[in-house]
Design brief:
Keywords: Cell outer membrane, Coiled coil, Membrane, Signal. This protein is mainly α. 80% of the residues lie in helices and 0% in strands.
Amino acid sequence: MKNLFLLLFAAIALSSCSEYQKVLSSEDTGKKYAMADSLYKQGKYKKALKLFEQVVPVYRGKPQAERLMYLYANTFYELEDYYLSGYQFERFETSYPQSDSVEVAAYKSAKSYYELSPRYSLDQEDTYKALEKLQNYINKYPNSEKRMEANELVAELRGKLEKKDIEIADQNLKIAEYIGDYRPAIESYDNFIADHPGSKYRKDAFYGRLQAAYQLAVRSIPSLVEERLLTAKEYYQKFIKYYSDTELKAEADRIAADIEERLGELQTETAQKS
């Protein structure tokens, strides 16, 4: 009985495969559409896709095209081909702005780019694209049931960009120790503070900027030391204003004390000369 069952199953599978190949190579567009639809509903997306690719151009402009284009885009999505799903859902939005499925298409287009976003250390072009798409979706569909999830995705992507930017600034600070120029590090921290006002790394950026400004001052030629020490002092005051109760305060206070000592020495030297 077991062998009989296996033979029967094999026969059915071969018959099904043979029928699929027959429809795939036929000229009957209606049969192709019907089989593609059936395979899609069964979750057999790879087979469905081959048929969709043949019938989509034929049905363009016809009443069936709207549903077909959505299924076509979603097939790529289900197959995790996010480049093509993002592109096809974008086309669907443009072609059928009044469709009942346009909101879902907009979300899945944005979600496709989210899935393409690489780890933070790599180029973030797709991350910026995903953020743009997700924010557009949130703005256009403020009452969507997907709004909360979309906001969570936005927060995750922004966190990725923040991590990349703070590591770039920290790397510039490390490089400055070898080349002696701390200005690129200061600029990187300034940009981070301006670009990421709510970041969890903001404290590190304020402290890193203080460190860089202090090192720039103490390593400067005599004519620039006082001016740069005063700038570093301003950065200390801004750090303390926001982060006076953090674990970095003790080290920031040590830097501030040294700044005050150096400024005092400079004032004494100036008084003696006069």
